[in-house]
Amino acid sequence: MPGNDEKSSLPCFGLDGKTVVVTGAGRGIGRTIALDAHRSGARIAAGSRTMEELDSLSRTISDEGGVCTTHRLDVTDNQSIESFVEAVAEFHGSINVLINNAGFNSQKSILDYDETLYDKIVDTNLKSVFFCSQIVARRMIEQGGGGSIVNLSSQAGVIGAPMRGPYSAAKGGVVNLTRTMAVEWAAHGIRVNAVAPTVTRSPMAEQAMRENPAFADAVKANNLLRGDLAEPSEISAPVIFLASEAASMITGHTLVVDGGWTIH
What is the DSSP string of 184-247? Predict the structure, then answer.
């Protein structure tokens, strides 16, 4: 037994030597995931439509002695995804982990959505997960050695979510798509899991709470552990866990991180 002054470690929780791809990495949860993956030992490939935000992320990681390549990426455009994955593989040599984080929402009654907004929400939250995962999984299978994919769903994908109809449908699709990918790719050693966060602190979430008092009241009443928004770091940590070898026997699972919202 180690003495009281000895430290023990569990290296399986780290991402040492892994190349981790994060979509929507410029801000919010995606930025935090990229930073935490770097601090867990990974090399980062960050994609976003906003290069200025990625430049800031890259500088932070570089200043800490890490490696972060940045790439313009539109996750609703398959050609953009193909070019992104090709550039990442060319620079890093392999892709070990994919975090499908990019997302978009706009709150309205189902009666008020038009087709254009519906398509934007579904394409950004569901179509993107399908094709980013497909294109990266092909690369993982070709290079061998398996891999890990973590999809960002939402608590809105596992319960009814008023004022978020298309978003709820898309995130529910992510949950079942995660299961199907896990079954299809298990033979290749590729694990596929999802994290379903509650409403998490970001400029968009804080604005929604200011503009919609009923929504703000729901957040405060239903996050039993906090009575407020979750913090990005509280979502990132479960993502890093599922990406790591500590979760080597977990696939097809959706980990709900919601402070108790969906249990009552």
Answer: HHGGGTEEEEEEEE-SB-SHHHHHHHHH-HHHHHHHHHH-TTTSSPBPHHHHHHHHHHHHSGGG
- Name the 3-class secondary structure at 114: coil
Within 10 Å of residue 26's Cβ, how many Cβ atoms?
Answer: 24
Gap between the Cα atoms of 135 and 90, Å rounded: 15
The reply to whether 113 belongs to the active site is no
Residue 254 contacts residue 242 (beta carbons within 8 Å):
no
Fold classification of 16-199+231-258 is: Rossmann fold (3.40.50)
The residue among 186, 106, 86, 196 whose CA lies nearest residue 151 is: 196
Which residue among 84, 104, 131, 167 is the active-site one?
167
User: What does the pLDDT look like over 162-209, one tens digit per residue?
Assistant: 999 999 999 999 999 999 999 999 999 999 999 999 999 988 889 889
Q: Is the pTM of this model over 0.85?
A: yes
Tens-digit pLDDT profile for residues 221-249? 999 999 999 999 999 999 999 999 999 99
Q: Is the pLDDT of residue 6 over 70?
A: no
H or E stretch at 61: helix 51-63
Distance CA 106, CA 143 (A): 39
